[in-house]
Every structure is written in C-alpha cells, then in structure tokens.
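The records we work with from here on pair a chain with its fold. These numbers are not coordinates but entries in a learned vocabulary of local backbone shapes. To see the layout at work, look at the sequence and tokens printed below.

. . .
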Amino acid sequence: MALFITNLGAAGIILSIAIMLASGFLLTRITKRLHLPNVTGYIIAGVIIGPWCLNLVPSEYINQMDFVTDLALAFIAFGVGKYFRLSSLKANGKNMVILTLFESLTAGVFITTAMLLLGLSLSFSLLLGAIGCATAPASTIMTIRQYKAKGPFIDTILQVVALDDAVALVAFSVSAAFVQASSGTGSVTVSQIALPVLFNVAALAIGAVSGVVLSRLIHKRRSKDHSLVLACVTIMGVAGICTSMNVSPLLACMASGTAYVNASGNKHLFKQLNQFTPPLLVMFFVLSGMRLAIPSLAAAGLIGVIYFLIRIAGKYAGSSIGAAVIHASPEIRRYFGLALIPQAGVSIGLAVLGQRMLPTESGLMLSTIILSSGLLYEMVGPACSKAAIKLSGSIPAKGKATGKPAEKAAEKLAADTGKEAGESSKGQADEMVSAQARHAVV
C-alpha cells in the first residue's frame, strides 16, 4: 500500500493525510466506548497505520512531516496563553505558582536523578526530566465535568494545570539550551549556554510583541474570517522565526497568546482557533503514533517502566510538599497528586523536539518512552482523577452543592488567600473542556 501511494506523487500525500485523519477518527469510536481520551485513539491509530504494522503511509512522507509538529505545537502553545490573565493571577496566583513549581519540578528532578543513576547521559536525563514536568489536563477536566465536581480542590486543579505546561516549556527550553551548547564539544562554557538562552529570551520578546500587535489588528469591525487569517499569520510567523533561530516556538507562541488575551481581553479568537485546528492536531497525534518504533520498546522497557513510576511518585510528593508550604487544605495535600498523572499533548511534542537534539539511538528511546508511557498515563489517569475528586469530597451529594470536605477546604483557602479562589470551577471547566478536552490536547 505504501509503495502504491508513493508512486502517486502529490496525490499520494493528499491520500496519506486522508488516511491519517480517517484512522484517527475511527479509533476514537472505540476509545469512546472504553471511556478513554481521544488522544489515546489517535496515537493507537498512528501505530496501526504506521511502518511497523499496516504500513499504509510511506516512511518518506512521515519523515517530511516535521512541519506538522511545529505548527501543532505553535497553536497549542498560543491556546495555553489565554489562561494567564493578569486579573486571575493576581487573585491567588502566588500560591498556585508555588504549588505548580513544587509538583512539576519535583517530578523533573526525580526523573533526571533516576536516569543518571541508571547510567544514561546528562543530556538525555535532562530532556526526559523536563518533559516529565508536563501534565495533560484534558482527562482530569472531563472527569470534573462528568461528575459536576465543585469546590476549592477543583478550582486549584484548574488553575495549576494551566500553569503546569508553562513550567514544562521553560524547563525544556533551559535543558535544550544546555544540550545544544554541549553537543559535539565534550565541555560547556558560559557563552555556549548564554547564547541559546538569549535566543529564547528574544523569542519570548517576539512572541509578546506579536500578541500585542495582533490585539490591535483584531477589532470589533474586523470580520471573523480576517481575524482568523491574522491569527494564523501571527502564530505561523512566530513559529517560523523561532524555528529559523533553532529555538522551540512553544514559549514564544505562549507569550503571544498571553500578551493577546491581556491586551485585548477577548477570548473569542481562541474559540475560532479551536474550530480551525482539530484536523492539524489529529494529524499531529497520529503522526506521533506512526513514529513509535515498536522494536525499540524492548530496549526502552526497563527505563520506560522506571520513568512511568518515578514521575507518578514525583508528582505526588511534589504536590504534597507544595501544598504544605502554602498551608493548603488536607484534601489538597493528600489527593492533589492523583489528579496530575495524565501526560500527553505538549509532552509528545517536546519528545519530538528532544529527539532531534539527541543522537539517533538516544532520541528514538526518548520519544518511545514518552509515547508508550503516555498511552498508559491516559488509561490510568481518568480513574486516578476520579478517585482524587471523590476522596476530596468535591463530588456533590444529592441535594447538596459540595461535600463536607470541600466546604472545609473553601474556608481554609479563603483564609489563606483572603478572597475566593477565582471563578467558579464549573465555568472554568466548561471553557477549558471546549478548548482542550474535546480533542484531548495540552
């Protein structure tokens, strides 16, 4: 089949894209019945039609689709930016930032240390640890909506998961700067690290300026079609500039989204993008599954299992320590880590970027670990999230708004912050589900 498609030329590329989209859709019909996220179906679809199973899409086409990864990550990162409104961060942002830093970076440190103890290279360990910081919020958010969960425990989840990927992006950018500086030299100088960092700072500035400019270009009289075109020009332009600078477009595009939403106060553009990007995001996840090298699973077996377990331990320990530091409620200290287990979306994109920076064998192992563990995380994540919100008392009893523990937690959080914890959890959940959970992205 792959040979036949290759002989079709341009028509073969179009047919390959159609096969990718169709397979992704069909597999979600199965995962939906199993109550699994869509991203699980997309990745499995990629494995099935990829070179190690049915081989429906030629390998040369797969190798030429790196731009799909860059574009998808650019749109994902821009969407993440909308959750960083200054008004929301001022309300109780300090505590949320502290909690996020502890749960995210603790997992990264645990993973990096474990990989180094196994004798793996520092570059590999740093990149894997940085990727391990990320969390995929879609599964947790869908569970929250399904059980109509409310309360400060839920408010905290919704605020932290928006910050979580930002921490992962920063950690990955710093690690990537170190890896790029040390590649091929055997030693690292201050200037070698400083230059990539300066490029990342420049990319952030470009992203922030582009977001402000976009907010000026899109006004009430601008048609929806032209607003969408301007947004695509901005996002793709920023991504292209960053790629040409050999810098990940993630931070810059996130800065662009943050600057836009704060300068304009308008979130309608993000809804438009959510209607425009689904085919691109489906291609991204299916393509990730196609790149999963089945034979390398055996080589990454032990390392993958250790990564899977260590990340869970790091998330749980970090969230407990962070909750203790900010004097959060007992429910958050005990159960919050269970809601942070799912991992997909941004982490898969980071794995693809990390694969490019490492030697062939190490890069392949990195992406294989993230893809295979991502499938497992997406399978066990929803059950763990349900357990967390149930144990926290956030699922309303019949005739009651929230459970008793949630009421106590509300009083505790109000005392800590001196104000209510942001918007109502249901409003946030509905908005974030429409933007992320519908396609199991970020």
The chain has a mean pLDDT of 81. Residues 86-117 form the longest helix (32 residues). Residues 130 and 172 are 5 Å apart (CA to CA). DSSP finds 21 helices and no strands in the chain.
